[in-house]
TrEMBL record:
GO MF entry, a single one: NADH dehydrogenase activity
Organism in which the protein naturally occurs: Amycolatopsis cihanbeyliensis
Cited SMART domains: Molybdop_Fe4S4 (SM00926)
Keywords (A to Z) from UniProt: 4Fe-4S, Iron, Iron-sulfur, Metal-binding
Gene Ontology process terms (BP): respiratory electron transport chain
Organism classification: Bacteria, Bacillati, Actinomycetota, Actinomycetes, Pseudonocardiales
A GO cellular component entry from the record: membrane
Matching Gene3D superfamilies: 2.40.40.20, 3.40.50.740, ADC-like domains (2.20.25.90), Dimethylsulfoxide Reductase, domain 2 (3.40.228.10)
Domain annotation 4Fe-4S Mo/W bis-MGD-type: ranges: 8-59
Pfam families reported for this sequence: Molybdop_Fe4S4 (PF04879), Molybdopterin (PF00384), Molydop_binding (PF01568)
SUPFAM superfamilies recorded: ADC-like, Formate dehydrogenase/DMSO reductase, domains 1-3
InterPro entries reported for this sequence: Asp_de-COase-like_dom_sf, MoPterin_dinucl-bd_dom, Mopterin_OxRdtase, Mopterin_OxRdtase_4Fe-4S_dom, Prok_molybdopt-oxidoreductase
Listed name of the protein: Assimilatory nitrate reductase catalytic subunit
This protein's record includes keyword 4Fe-4S: yes
Amino acid sequence: RQVTTDARDPRDTHCPYCALQCGMTLSGAEPVEVRPRRFPVNDGGLCQKGWTSAALLDSPARLTTPLVRVDGQLRPASWDAALDLIAARLSEIRARHGADGVAVFGGGGLTNEKAYLLGKFARVALGTSQVDYNGRFCMSSAAAAGIRAFGLDRGLPFPVTDLAGADAVLLVGANPAETMPPFTQHLRGAIQAGGLVVVDPRRTPTAERASMHLAPAPGTDLALSLGILHAVVAQGHLDESYLDKRTSGFAEAWRIVASWWPERVERVTGVSAADQRRVAARLAAARNAYVLTARGTEQHADGVNMVSGWINLALALGLPGTPGSGYGCLTGQGNGQGGREHGQKADQLPGYRKLDDPAAREHVAAVWGVSPDSLPGPGRSAYELLDALGTEAGPKAMLVFGSNVSVSAPHSGNVAERLSALDFLVVADLVLSETAALADVVLPVTQWAEEDGTMTNLEGRVLLRRKAIDPPDEVRTDLAVLAGLATRLGQPVEAFPADAEAVFTELRTASAGGAADYSGISYDRLRAGEALYWPVPGEDHPGTPRMFLDSFAHPDGRARFVPVDHTGPGEPPDAEFPLQATTGRVLQHYQSGAQTRLVAELNTVVPEAYVELHPDTAARAGLAEGDLAEITSRRGSTTARVRRVPSMRPDLVFLPFHFPGAQRANLLTNPALDPTSRMPEFKVCAVRISAKEGA
Ligand code: SF4
């Protein structure tokens, strides 16, 4: 058994932010401070967000009492009054509109225990099908493409430390130098060997470190993957032996690839044919190579096909399931991996089971002590759910846990309107987020160092974060909130435990036999510091750090090429909206910024929204450095401070999405959805830019 850390001391914990889940230690003295801890993913490194993460523990912005809206104002209330009110209003709305009249919205930062109990709460205590979460906006396209190709999705099917042995890494739509800086140490082998290739329309800090940076026109990544694959085949680098032994479907995929020769791809993407051929040769020449994707290529209305294009390339080179090489997706949110495995998703049950699979329903229903027929079917996906709120056919009430959708969802002007149209909105959060500010009841909940719980990091490794400090007096865990509500809605106390270890024990049973099998993982094993990567199908099983080495998860054991073709962005530029906008993250902020905007050390560095654009583009719009610009799409306008960046494509503007109100980048974004994953097209929409009037 591999033991890589000692988790016996609760002060040895993990960062509350991204999916890397860096190891850190909390100081014993007050105020609590954070120190980096040697842990394989970060090896003693932390980014600025991690270093400053203790600031929110005793922030004056913390919510410390339930709030109930009275005469339009949020006023302090007791827990009993708040929970009684919620139970009464939900019961009334369910009686009037049926079980689907109430929706539940979760988050990819919630612990495994919370994600599990939230899904159970929705389907058992409320009986609603209307449950989904913000991970739908994050990794859903990569998950769907991974399942299609390999039969199973685990972000990285290998430990992140394996990457250090690679002499070539193709990073597509990923900017870890800003989003998870300690991760970049694992790219050192590729950087030293001149084999780091970055595909990104922007010259990001990650692209700066690359040997080759390919900057395709936004929304044309799929064409680029086809061109590089075409070059691999033309150069004689197809791994025919791997294809014979381990894959199926190449001939069908090739029928499309054959017509995408590099010169044709150059006309669509702007990436030269020579560069495409150079990348093909570089990847093929590597002893060990990886293809890694992230949000840049996934958050599109054809995001699943885009990822499939890159997986096809990896398969053609014989990488997935080969020791020292592979394909993986860099998960974003803290529990982006575990959050999609335990049942808070509209179409899933715990153990990464499909909700419409009769055997899965029977297994989980037995664990929950209910009839399989009583479990609702699949509900609306995240954006479709938000878009339906308060409509005649849609939910009239919603409970939100761990998500700030009024800032982070696409077409956020519409989402804010839909939230306002609800009869009843409940938000559980640490702080009064922009979504919480719209609620009828706000519930103050604990954060990472104040509660027990497990997280599954981007490698599929399950980590225990233990309660190290007491929360403020009137703050409760999300599990306690769900338990309190469930009993008020008539559920037996024992069906909704508030204790994290008890919930995890039930989760183990519910996940047994599923794709993400946690049945062999226990708090005792995690406390002892065992490195447990799922699946772990028994207490004596050592876990599965590397997947697919012998066979893939399809019944025939083979990985599948998927025939995919370039279609282009859903909203191409035109005379009215001649530019394209893309969105992303910056080093100092996390997701909607609800937490990091409250940390002075972070917010003083990037205190407001900005827009990056080429100096010529700025000049054409009459904009100078530091001017306030108005950026407009078909859905709305946002304001941002101008940053002229010579490396930007002249047809592109970039906006970080962490800012609220009139600075929301998501006022612009296009809610066109991928037909399979239901991922919105965050990464490209048509816009125009001008000076902000009156600024
Ligand atoms: Fe936290 Fe991610 Fe930064 Fe590590 S890289 S310190 S997990 S935000």
